[in-house]
């Protein structure tokens, strides 16, 4: 499994995955899908906050009309998929995944990656047990499914007749019809008092004031939708895109980053998560991006599905 930072992954121990929750198929398992118009759209920015991530340069891309889920795939919907197919995620096959330190059980001695001490590599953590053995999703069926690798997201999307969105499609959909939007709601900057989405408020990673009401994930429709009717494209959980990750620059640093991304077969992630804060990870902007290997999973990584035409 890939790491959430540049550190080496921790070895996995064999472990049987937890049983999928007994969740009956309901109307909530059928995604709300919204049409997105095609056209020539803007991707990226000429004012990057994190240039090393390849947020720029701003460029024009022509896309065809497509459809996309109004919200991230929920625990309920993913549980129904697992019950129908028997699918096992990368986290279940590896036997562990990354959990935010505030969520691990008291006395848990799971190791922390070098450079990111707020993560723990927890044995048994996966989509059905987000904090590890003993945790569950019964009370979070309408929250985004997490601990999802790119390979898992792609498998789910194919099974429901869809695919992962391209980065250009994702940005266009997230802007809600305003091609110049910085955030799904427009240009207003969220902070520790003004709440527009589910991100961190306070001092990361030690103190969260919970101004938005959530320490971890929130329900997928917890905040107002954008102009196209999409919920939580920024904050809550990272979302996988179809594209391979690369930085559009000729600098030595960019070339080194691209070489590392190619070795790891990294894919683009968009939208940030409930752990983002301006002081550390200001990646809840539409132009922001990150890249991780397709086997990587963590407790803040999910997805939504796109569909042709």
SSE diagram, text form:
Layout: E1 33-36, E2 39-43, E3 59-63, E4 66-69, H1 75-85, H2 90-94, E5 96-100, E6 119-123, H3 150-159, H4 167-175, E7 202-203, E8 207-208, E9 238-244, H5 252-264, E10 267-270, E11 290-292, E12 301-302, E13 306-308
Parallel strand pairs: 9-12
Antiparallel strand pairs: 1-4, 2-3, 4-13, 5-6, 7-8, 9-10, 10-11
Describe the structure.
The chain has helices spanning 75-85, 90-94, 150-159, 167-175, 252-264; strands spanning 33-36, 39-43, 59-63, 66-69, 96-100, 119-123, 202-203, 207-208, 238-244, 267-270, 290-292, 301-302, 306-308. It has 309 residues and is an alpha+beta fold. The chain has one domain (27-308): paralog of FGE (formylglycine-generating enzyme) (Alpha-Beta Complex). The strands form five sheets. The chain has a four-stranded mixed β-sheet. Strands 1-4-13 form a three-stranded antiparallel β-sheet, covered by helices on one side. β7 (202-203) and β8 (207-208) form a beta hairpin. The chain starts with 32 loop residues before the first strand and ends with a strand.
What labels would you give this structure?
309 residues; alpha+beta; paralog of FGE (formylglycine-generating enzyme); 5 helices; disordered N terminus
Summarize the entry for a quick read.
The longest helix has 13 residues, at 252-264. The strands form five sheets. A four-stranded mixed sheet has the order 11-10-9-12. A three-stranded antiparallel sheet has the order 1-4-13, covered by helices on one side. A two-stranded antiparallel sheet has the order 2-3.
């Amino acid at each position: 499994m890939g790491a959430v930072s540049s550190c080496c992954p921790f070895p996995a121990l064999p472990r049987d995955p937890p049983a999928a929750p007994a969740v009956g198929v309901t109307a909530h398992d059928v995604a709300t899908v919204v049409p997105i118009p095609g056209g020539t759209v803007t991707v990226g920015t000429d004012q990057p906050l994190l240039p090393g991530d390849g947020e720029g340069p701003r460029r024009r891309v022509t896309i065809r009309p497509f459809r996309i889920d109004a919200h991230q795939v929920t625990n309920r919907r993913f549980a129904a998929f697992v019950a129908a197919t028997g699918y096992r995620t990368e986290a279940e096959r590896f036997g562990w995944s990354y959990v935010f330190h505030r969520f691990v059980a008291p006395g848990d001695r799971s190791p922390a990656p070098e450079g990111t001490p707020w993560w723990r590599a927890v044995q048994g953590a996966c989509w059905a047990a987000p904090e590890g053995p003993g945790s569950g999703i019964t009370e979070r069926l309408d929250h985004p499914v997490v601990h999802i690798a790119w390979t898992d997201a792609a498998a789910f999307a194919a099974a429901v007749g869809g695919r992962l969105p391209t980065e250009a499609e994702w940005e266009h959909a997230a802007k809600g019809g305003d091609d110049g939007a910085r955030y799904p709601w427009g240009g207003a900057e969220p902070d520790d008092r003004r709440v527009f989405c589910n991100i961190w408020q306070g001092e990361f990673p030690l103190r969260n004031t919970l101004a938005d009401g959530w320490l971890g994930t929130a329900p997928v429709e917890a905040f107002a939708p954008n102009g196209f009717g999409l919920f939580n494209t920024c904050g809550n959980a990272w979302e996988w895109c179809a594209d391979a990750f690369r930085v559009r620059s000729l600098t030595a640093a960019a070339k080194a980053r691209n070489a590392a991304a190619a070795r790891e077969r990294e894919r683009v992630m968009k939208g940030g998560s409930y752990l983002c804060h301006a002081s550390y990870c200001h990646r809840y902007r539409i132009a922001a991006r990150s890249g991780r290997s397709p086997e990587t999973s963590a407790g803040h990584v999910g997805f939504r599905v796109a569909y042709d035409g």
